[in-house]
Amino acid sequence: MNDITPGSEAEPAENATGSRRRTILIVAVVGALVVVGAIVAGAAGAAGVFGAGEPAAVPSPSTVTLSSPTPTVKPAARKHISAFADKLPGSVLSYAFAGIAPHPGFVSAGAIEAYKVDYSAGGKAKVTVYAGQWETAKEAGAVYGSLIKAPAAAKVPAKGAATPAKPTTGKVWVAGRPVGHWKITKAPDGTGSAIWTNGTALFRVVGPANVVEDFFNAFPL
Question: pLDDT digit string (tens) for 109-119?
Answer without folding.
Answer: 999 999 999 99
